[in-house]
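Researcher: Here's the sequence for the chain we discussed earlier.
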Amino acid sequence: MRYLKSFYAVFILIFFLSSCNIEPYEGEVPKEIDDLPKTCEEAVNITTDAAISYESASSADANFGALCGTYKTALKNQISVCGDQGGVFQLLIDNLGNCEGGGENVAEERAFMTANLKGEQYNNLTPSGYIFHNDAVSMDTFFVEDADVTYLKIQGGTNIFIIGNLTEINLYIPESYWAEGTYHLNIQPRAFDSDMKEVATPYVSLVLSEGNLNYKQVEGGKIIITEFNLDTRIIKGTFEFQFEDVSGNTPGSQLFWCKNGTFDYSLDDKYFD
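Model: Thanks. This is the structure I predict for it:
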């Protein structure tokens, strides 16, 4: 959600303010914000006020795009006047994107996945780098039967900055399946229909790192899309699939389940604008 981005943005601003011993600006944002502030203190005050206005707004507000643009300009001006050691403010600018939006049909950012793998429950799986850029979904393209097919990618994983094991689930849904329903979940982006014609199909990719153990997905999964709404820009659903230990460390084939998988993501990619 935008609240995580808000926390990150406010944290950086507070860090900058406290390190410079500058009190937050209490007045309104100057109308001529494109003009460079005369001092670093003035630049930080303007940025702080713009950030508060932006983070207090809803993405459905008619002036959301304008507030975003004001915030972005303030950040750019602050970099020009104060510098940007470590590039943290440029990162905030990049996260804001093109500042389009306002009114209806705007995604409220959310990316929330749960799953039970081998009996272990994971309740907060998010896309790689979500804490920084807040992009919930992304798009991929695969070549299927003489055509490029667009796939919606939903990713949920553990924090990439935690040293050790990594858990990551990637669900890929071709455009022809962007609707509520129950679908077979394959292990590759293409399959064959009854006429042996190659067709696009939903599929799953699992990354499960546990020392020297390796796993692969096997047939038998399913994905249920319970909501696909382009007005609210939300996709929700459930999924499950089997996977196999192929490390060779244990005799025989060991099958495990990914069960109780859920996802609730905003369709925030520009493809849906």
